[in-house]
TrEMBL record, chains A, B:
<feature type="domain" description="Luciferase-like">
    <location>
        <begin position="1"/>
        <end position="312"/>
    </location>
</feature>
<dbReference type="Pfam" id="PF00296">
    <property type="entry name" value="Bac_luciferase"/>
</dbReference>
<dbReference type="GO" id="GO:0004497">
    <property type="term" value="F:monooxygenase activity"/>
</dbReference>
<dbReference type="InterPro" id="IPR011251">
    <property type="entry name" value="Luciferase-like_dom"/>
</dbReference>
<dbReference type="GO" id="GO:0005829">
    <property type="term" value="C:cytosol"/>
</dbReference>
<dbReference type="InterPro" id="IPR050766">
    <property type="entry name" value="Bact_Lucif_Oxidored"/>
</dbReference>
<keyword id="KW-0503">Monooxygenase</keyword>
<dbReference type="GO" id="GO:0016705">
    <property type="term" value="F:oxidoreductase activity, acting on paired donors, with incorporation or reduction of molecular oxygen"/>
</dbReference>
<dbReference type="InterPro" id="IPR036661">
    <property type="entry name" value="Luciferase-like_sf"/>
</dbReference>
<protein>
    <submittedName>
        <fullName>LLM class flavin-dependent oxidoreductase</fullName>
    </submittedName>
</protein>
<keyword id="KW-0560">Oxidoreductase</keyword>
Length: 360, 360
């Protein structure tokens, strides 16, 4: 199993200015690069404490590329709904070049009504925009002289520049939250799937759907699964818990606030069951997310044990993406946790199992 | 006078892969930062050898910010015609933060028909899109809870994030090529003006229009003028000439090719006189651009003398932006030229005159 770092800014601009936030992140990038972490990853969100410091993940990842040598740089994710495919393909080519071929591109549908509203994009077109956007970007990356005639974007014969450094293009990922259709689609597309720790049985079912679709579409191997976790470790469990509890709760409150449109009237045929899902998320706290292993808090060994437990219960996953500097957590403690996990946990994660899943 | 570096990629993707191109640029960034250059700058262009490696200048500048400490980072320029203002304002906030407040934002109208065609944007809306885009982005940077109702883009009350590190926003520039209206507009807006060395009398006239408009609009001071040059220096003049001639010519050929739509039928009421201007540019060569000081080639002292000559003839300008690694020029020679100019020319440029223009 590989482990990397997921930067998900959830700080309010009156609490922490963005220059300080990004300076802290870039210190963690250097630290993580030296310790052998697999990747860094950052979201695309807008206009709200929840993620809004990162309206273009590619901008931060370009700075991170210049501060690192080995880390993979993962968009987690870019949103075709709010980006022109010609622009997005060009930025992907630039970052793949600037990083010397270390980019991986995650795509997502977006799910926050306030973002759709401000961009003037109908949420009921979300899935269609996603499918078309991924298709258009992939064609622009793969082919020269690509023409495209879509419902939302069309262009005559075009060679996107720069051509990608990785051929035919950087590895692609698709974010899947809680619908069978999303997991199936990721498999059909031959993309890795970025998911969250759901109840173990549910996750296992969805990952089986993903892998079945992957194989049915004729892609080699069994696909690639990334799961996202909050993570905080310290030399002893009590200390880790005491440090992480309130920052995890603050993160959960900012997610609930950003998604509150869902529980106050938003609805879309493209998002069946979202209101109920957001209601459940809004009821989460430190204890409930820990109970389902969405937050991993304890000693490095505690965290590794829990990661393998999730791994075995869901049928295996390849990459853990760890949120380490969430919300109000003291950046010094976040750096200590990243260092400790790098020194104590990463070697265990690498050494203990071969590639692929272990029978549960 | 301050001098910085303008990266204008004009390499074909079959001649030089983008990872190599950007690695060379980032080496020059470190070199320039250590030598006290004022800025680095990069364009937004698409789909063609002429500029197409840089479809989003903010992506490269983010990497450059991470490789430098003091350089100003200037978009030269971003194009409102092809960018959503919500996206652009967010990226500006990110880069201003990542660079610790070193960003300056240049806007331009775009002028290449093949770019408008592929984005499906009518060239006759160019000026209106530019005006609206600059207005929308400036409001998003300056105000929280900004609502906007435009011809091309509208959004309800929105707080763009991250809020800019520089308050109320990074310094703004407007590119002006060859119309009185563009220079006047830059002055009215209170933005710096990015221009090219035109015939001396013409440039003096336009800059007077700019400064008059600046003062009439009640802005303090006299504005800020940046001129762009090709520059190559070597310890002796003959060597500099021998090295620069063919790369300058190659650059001019790629400009002519990218703009060839203008001489084969494109026309737009938003671009009066463009066909004739492009025809003139297409007839340029090393000798003609040198004659009008658009290319500065010689010893460091030659280049400084010529910069002051342009300065005095046009009524003064504040910033020289130097294209140093153009087209086929050997990157080792480009680095030598940047080092030599930094050591020999920058101290003279800084020491010889006070701020402001000298009477011609």
């Amino acid at each position: 199993m590989e482990a990397g770092i997921n930067f998900f800014p959830d700080v309010h601009h009156r609490d922490k200015a963005a220059d300080r936030y990004f300076a802290e992140c870039l210190e963690l990038v250097e630290l993580a690069d030296g310790l052998g972490y697999h990747h860094i990853r950052i979201v695309e969100h807008y206009f709200h404490q929840y993620g809004g410091y990162s309206p273009n993940p590619i901008v931060f990842l370009a700075a991170a590329a210049a501060r690192s040598r080995n880390l993979r740089l993962i968009t987690g994710a870019v949103l075709p709904a709010f980006n022109h495919p010609l622009k997005l393909a060009g930025e992907i080519g630039m970052l793949d070049a600037i990083s010397g071929g270390r980019l991986e591109v995650g795509f997502a549908r977006a799910f926050l009504p306030h973002e759709f509203q401000r961009f003037g994009v109908d949420m009921d077109t979300s899935r269609a925009r996603f499918d078309e956007g991924v298709d258009a970007v992939r064609r622009l990356l793969t082919e020269e002289d690509a023409a495209f005639d879509g419902r939302f974007h069309s262009f005559p014969s075009t060679t996107s520049l720069p051509r990608p450094t990785q051929r035919p293009h950087p590895p692609l990922w698709v974010a899947a939250l809680s619908s069978e259709q999303s997991f199936r689609r990721a498999g059909e597309l031959g993309c890795g799937v970025m998911a969250n720790p759901l109840a173990a049985d549910t996750l296992r079912t969805y990952l089986e759907i993903y892998r079945t679709a992957w194989q049915a579409a004729g892609h080699p191997g069994r696909g690639r699964v990334m799961l996202a976790f909050h993570m905080h470790c310290a030399p002893d469990r009590r200390t880790a818990e005491a440090r992480a509890e309130e920052p995890v709760n603050a993160y959960l409150r900012s997610l609930a606030a950003a998604a509150s449109d869902w529980t106050s009237g938003a609805s879309s045929a493209d998002y069946p069951g979202y209101r109920q899902m957001i209601e459940k998320l809004a009821a989460d706290d430190f204890h409930s997310v820990r109970a389902r292993s969405a937050a991993l808090v304890g000693t490095p060994d505690d965290v590794v044990d829990r990661l393998w437990e999730v791994h075995d219960r869901c049928g295996g996953f390849e990459v853990a993406s760890l949120q380490v500097n969430f919300s109000t957590l003291d950046p010094v403690l976040a750096a200590e946790s990243v260092a400790l996990f790098g020194e104590r946990a990463l070697p265990r994660l690498r050494a203990e199992r071969g590639p692929g899943p272990r029978a549960a």
